[in-house]
Structure formats: structure tokens, C-alpha cells
Write a structure and sequence with these properties.
alpha/beta, DNA polymerase, domain 1, 2 domains, 12 helices
Length: 253
């Protein structure tokens, strides 16, 4: 028979069972922040048009599409100087002015994640996809935009690349990003809005969905797994199932 001492004896803490860890992702979705999540080309065009209008130089979308589709002002502005007759300001000064204005505009904006991209990322999260975002913008700006866009909710990882050239993002960039995420190239999907992003992804043996915009619609995207006029929520499931037909079954099992 138990005595009072036994009754008052504190119960030993129950052993906590270790929680099973989530399986490591085997698929990933990769894209460039200022190419897909944010309309960086439109921002750059508006900023550059305003800067050149102050010098009485007319700047049009066709001209931007011809000279300015590489990733950063420092890679494309020097090529503008002679064709547009820019003489009142140096290329270095114009690069500094435009780069600062783009960053200021992007930081001050209140961007919303497109519903089509959000749906793809939501389905990817349900299927345990990893998400990688590359950028040529600064770490601070990139992280701020990830938070504003809600990309952190999808576990997105930011990869910042500096001192880039006209070939950014190259095949090596995509491979480095996939490797940093412990992903095999053939299980990594790049969503790209311009020829460079898509062709380099395919060269690196990554999968690719091309989503041209008004500046890049004329480019050749042949070889991509899919070419979409736009990212629509209604096509998100079909898109993932086309590129990774086994990903839905893997989660269901």
C-alpha cells in the first residue's frame, strides 16, 4: 500500500519521443529575383528613360531590348553611349546614377508576388521542393524583397552574385546554386524570363520553363521544357507535372 510520501512523490518527466525529421528535398525551383519575382527590367527601363530624358535623349523599349537585357547597368550602359550619342555624362557616372535609382525604387516599392509564381511555389512546398533565388542586387535589398514578397514562407534561399558580366546568369551560376542546395541539376527547375537565363540553364542540364515578358518576347526560347505566355495559377499544377511527373506521386506515397 502506498504511503503519503509515495503519493506526493513527483512524477518523472515522460520521455519525449524524437520527432521524425522532414525528408530532404529532391527537387528545386530556381529563379532570378529581378527577372521573375520582381519586374526588374521594367524598373531599369523606367529609371534609365528618366535619366536620359534629362539629357534630351529619347529612349524607347526597342532600344532597351536591343542593348539592355544583360543583368546590370554596368554591363549594358557602356554599349549605349555611342549609339545614343550620350556625351554629357560618363558611362561610369550614368552607371552609378542608374544603379542607385534602381535600388532606391526597388527598396521603396511594395511588390506583390505574382499569383502564378505563388501557386507554383505553394505546390512545390506541398511536394517538398527547395526554392533558390539568385540576384545581382545587394544582400540587404534581396533579403528585404524576399520578406516583402513572402518568399521566406516557402523557405527560399537567397544567393547573391557580384561582379557579373553580360553572360549572367551563366551555366556555372545555375550549377553553383544547385550544388549549394544539394540538388542534382536534372531535378532543378529554372523559371526564366530571358534567353540568357534559359539557355544557360539548359546548358547546365537543368530543366527550364520560359516566361518571356514584353522586353524579351522576341527572343528564341527553343529547347525549354515549356514556354508560357505568363505564369497563371491555373497552369501551375500542369507545369510542375510536365517537368517533374513523378514529384506528385512521390509525395502521395
Amino acid at each position: 500500500m502506498s504511503n503519503k510520501a509515495d503519493k506526493n512523490k513527483p512524477k518523472e518527466a515522460e520521455e519525449t519521443q524524437p520527432q521524425p525529421s522532414a525528408p530532404a528535398p529532391i527537387y528545386s525551383i530556381l529563379f532570378q529575383l529581378e527577372d521573375i519575382a520582381v519586374n526588374g527590367r521594367k524598373i531599369a527601363y523606367d529609371v534609365l528613360k528618366k535619366a536620359l530624358s534629362e539629357q534630351k535623349i529619347d529612349f524607347s523599349m526597342p532600344v532597351f531590348s536591343r542593348y539592355c537585357l544583360s543583368s546590370t547597368p554596368q554591363t549594358y550602359i557602356p554599349s549605349l553611349m555611342e549609339p545614343l550619342g550620350i556625351r554629357k555624362v560618363s558611362a561610369e557616372k550614368l552607371v552609378e546614377q542608374v544603379t542607385g535609382a534602381i535600388a532606391e525604387h526597388a527598396a521603396a516599392s511594395d511588390p506583390k508576388l505574382g499569383p502564378g509564381l505563388a501557386k507554383i511555389l505553394q505546390l512545390g512546398r506541398e511536394r517538398n521542393f527547395a526554392v533558390g533565388v539568385i540576384t545581382t542586387w545587394s544582400e540587404d535589398l534581396g533579403q528585404a524583397l524576399l520578406a516583402k514578397l513572402g518568399l521566406n514562407e516557402f523557405g527560399a534561399r537567397l544567393f547573391v552574385f557580384k561582379d557579373v558580366n553580360r553572360t549572367f546568369p551563366s551555366a556555372d551560376i545555375w550549377l553553383k546554386t544547385a550544388k549549394a542546395m544539394n540538388m542534382k541539376p536534372r531535378r532543378s527547375l529554372v523559371i526564366g524570363g530571358n534567353k540568357m537565363a534559359c539557355k544557360s540553364a539548359m546548358s547546365a542540364d537543368l530543366r527550364c520553363v520560359a516566361v518571356p515578358d514584353s522586353f524579351t518576347a522576341f527572343q528564341d526560347f527553343s529547347g525549354a521544357d515549356l514556354i508560357l505566355e505568363s505564369l497563371e495559377p491555373s497552369s501551375a499544377r500542369e507545369t510542375l507535372n510536365t517537368v517533374f511527373p513523378h514529384s506528385e506521386k512521390a509525395i502521395a506515397s
